[in-house]
Structure formats: C-alpha cells, structure tokens
Amino acid sequence: MNNKNLQTEIDSSFLYQRLADHEKDETIADVFRQMSLIEKGHAEAFARKENISISDLMHPSWRAKSLDTIGKIFGYDYVLGVLMDTEKSISSAVISLKEKNKVPVTGTETNHVKILRAILEGEKKVTGTQLSKFEKKHRSVGGNAIRAAVLGGNDGLVSNFSLIMGIAGATEGQQGVLLAGLAGLLAGALSMSLGEWISVKSSQELYENQMQIEMDELETNPEGEEKELALIYIAKGIPSDQAHQMAADIMKDTSKAHEVLVREELGINAEELKGSAVEAATFSFILFAIGAVLPVIPFMFTSGMKAIIISVCMSAAGLFLIGAAITLFTGRNVWLSGFRQVAFGLAAAAITFAIGRLIGVSIS
C-alpha cells in the first residue's frame, strides 16, 4: 500500500465516523461505525508494518475535511455517495493491478458497499424498514449532485471561453467579443436549463406512471406483492423466515409498502421524484452561467490584447479550481488534476482562437 492509499483509508475511517455521528437510525449508525473501525484497522496495520507512528497518521486530508463540510451544508447522503464511488474505484484498481501482475483475485477486493450490506444484513435486529432506509441511501444521488455542479460550471467555462477566443481571434479582441460572450452565456445557460427541465419532467412522468401501476397491483393483490417482496429479500441473501417477516412488517403500512416495492422492483426512489423540474432547471442555468461569465468579465472593462490576456488568466484559474474540485470525487492529485484541466481548456481555446484568426485575416 502506498501513502496515497493509506491516506484514503484514514479519510474513509474519518468520514464513516462522521456518517455515524449524523445518522439517526442506530442500527445504520452502527454499520458506519464498524466500517470506520475496519478502515482504521487497515491503516494501523500498515503503520505497524512500516514502523510509522500511529499518532502521526490519523489526520484526515483536506479532501476529507472538505467532504465533511459539504455534508454539514448539504447533508451526509452526498458524502456517502462520494465515499462509495471512491471505494469502487480503489477496488477496481486493486483487481486490475493483481490481474496485471498475475496475482490471484481472491474476492476480498470487492468494494465496501458489499461489506456494508453484509454487516447490515448480518444484524439480527434489522427490520425491513431499516433495510429500506439503507437501500434509499445506497441508491441516492449522493455525490452526483455535487459532481453535476462542478461539471455544469466546467461546461459553461470551457464552451464560452472557446467561443470568446474564437471571436477575439477574428477581431483582435476589439469588436463584438463582449456581445458574443454574453450571447453565448445566455444561449448556453438556457439550453442547459431547458434540457435539465425536460430530463427531470419526463423522468417524473414516466416513473409516476410506473408507480401508479404498482399501487394498483398492491391494492388488487397484496398477498402476491408480499410474496414477491419476500423473494426479493431472499435473493439478497436474507434467510427465508426473516425475509418473510420483513415483508409482512412492511405490508402493514400500504404507503410504506408501495414505496419499498417501487424501489425494489422498479429501482425508483420516490424521494427523488419530489424535486422540482423548475428548481433543477434554475440550478443548471446558474451553474452554467457562473462558469461562462469568467472569460467575459475582462471585456466588460477593457478590450484588445489586454482583455484577451486577462480573460485567459481568469479562465485558467477557473479551470484549475474545477480540476481541483473534481479530486473530491476521484481522489487524484490536486495539482495533476488542476493543471490537466487547464491544459485541455487552453488547448480548446487556442484552437478556436487560431480558427478565428484565420477567418479574420481572410475577411480582411
């Protein structure tokens, strides 16, 4: 294990403990505490092997602290989503490395999401409601919402930066750059907003129709739905008697039973359907606009080569910050990710600037 992976273990231990601290359901909180201890044990074992002081180790990185802050603001389901994505990536990397070095894959390399489920299902006191709640967390968008925010800003910045540089190349930064930049910002943000609205609205309408069909089945044949739910739990490895008892408990509350059935059978999380399409569209518009406005700002106050240079500098800074933010999900090196994002963004802008320059000279 290298120092990077060791730090990941330390960060995971810290974040699982934070999840436990903020989880109201004691059974699920205990699952998170057990996961925290497992991760801490991994880190301590490596420290003993390498003769590293334990006290020097147990400090979460800036990434873990940032995720904890995000959890405090937006809720810890976001943190769980990011944490699970990270562990899946690490698991895949370990398996790939073993296959490359022709080392047998034992099956223990699988991600900690499976460990979480194994711990939860091993609890004798677990109920159908608790398992349902955990399934909701497991399938929640988690870090995807934050990731969408980062990528939305990136789309706005890169697309409008490239557009502005193309116009600046054709006009030497004199005419029409500000107008083109503002038009690109507005058009791109509206397009993103409309696309998000259509996506959310169509998904809601589709899922609502499927949920209504499931409710009809529940009302006309509750015994069959109870058996179907029990079979789903049995397929997950839960003992038959416990699975049937869990299904029976859930079926006592029709609304709860409907929620669980649509989640288990259809893979639909009813909570996600409560989001407003208008809110999603507005959120998308704002995120795109925040990124798109950066390269435009200098042309509001100056023009020519001076404005071009300032725009490039501001856009490069924005690209670096976006690349750094992406490491919250990937766990990669901040400098590598940041400068890689800058390189790609500047390359795209350079191409459009060159094309604009050629067009401008041709017209002249």
Structure description:
One of its GO terms (cellular component) is endomembrane system. It is a multi-pass membrane protein. It comes from Candidatus Opimibacter skivensis. GO terms for molecular function: manganese ion transmembrane transporter activity. Keywords: Membrane, Transmembrane, Transmembrane helix. This protein has 364 residues and is an all-alpha fold. The chain folds into 2 domains: 124 residues, no CATH class; 221 residues, no CATH class. It contains 15 helices and no strands. Helix 3 packs antiparallel against helix 4. The radius of gyration is 25 Å and the shape is flat. It starts with a helix and ends with a helix. 34% of the residues are buried. About 2% of the residues have low confidence.
Structure keywords:
single chain; 364 residues; mainly alpha; 15 helices; 81% helix; flat
Short account of what is shown:
This protein has 364 residues and is mostly helical. Helix content is 81%, strand content 0%.
Q: What portion of residues is helical?
A: over 70%
Order of helices and strands: HHHHHHHHHHHHHHH
- On the 0 to 100 scale, the average pLDDT is 75
Rg calculated over all Cα atoms: 25 Å
Total beta strands: 0
Please report the number of helical segments: 15
Strand residue content: under 5%
Low-confidence stretches: 138-143
Number of structural units classed as domains:
2
Shape, principal axes of CA atoms: flat
How far apart, in Å, are the first and last alpha carbons? 61 Å
- Estimated structural class: mainly alpha
Biggest pleated sheet: none
